[in-house]
Amino acid sequence: MAQEIEIEFKNLLTKAEFDTLLETFPFPKEPFKQTNHYFETEDLRLKKQRSALRIREKNGEFTLTLKEPFGDGLLETHDKLSQKEAASWLNGKPVAKANTGKQLKQLGIEFRDLKYFGDLTTERREYENKDTLYVLDYSMYNNQDDYEFELEAKNRAEGEKVFKWILETNYIPLRQTPNKIERFFMNLQNLDGRH
């Protein structure tokens, strides 16, 4: 599917909280790895429109995804990339793709405006139950790492109820949790000394 609506809830965790959820719920013991490669304009025009662009590398496959605000979730627009196309993107020569290109144009952004800023690698564990996806992530980026619990649901009210129940029953405080690309760029700005 070229587009989908994503309703998700996120909470940063301590290592101890991460281990508790890993033991309490039926997450697989072995994670799979994925790497997000992040793109933005020099003047952060995507961020200013609360949008984000990444290439996700997983199992030797590459998917270009644009995330935009939509209703009470996010609209994700996808294009598959060949390994050669992905390499071209990472080397500063973005290859125009139909689905994301159409959405970027609506945001006033051309492919030539985009610059590669870096990557974030995640060791992910997930399982699904009753139309709800449960995710535990350990992510590494910009000489930093963090732990996160995510829940993706079809319905916002139901998803929020389950999410809060999991945190409360495991004595995990609800934390303001920016998404991965926001954490990546906040950390990158701190490294560069830019504010």
Describe this structure in words.
With 195 residues, the chain is an alpha+beta fold. The chain has one domain: Hypothetical Protein Pfu-838710-001 (Beta Barrel). Helices cover 30% and strands 43% of the residues. The chain is built from six helices and eight strands; from the N terminus they run βαβαβββααβββαα. The chain has helices at 15-24, 45-48, 83-90, 98-106, 156-169, 180-192; strands spanning 3-13, 32-41, 52-58, 61-70, 73-81, 114-129, 132-141, 144-153. Strands 1-5-4-3-2-6-7-8 form an eight-stranded antiparallel beta barrel, surrounded by five helices. Strand 7 (132-141) and strand 8 form a beta hairpin. The longest helix is centred in the C-terminal third of the chain and has 14 residues, at 156-169. The mean pLDDT is 93. This is CYTH domain-containing protein. Residues 4-191 form the CYTH domain. It holds the Pfam family CYTH.
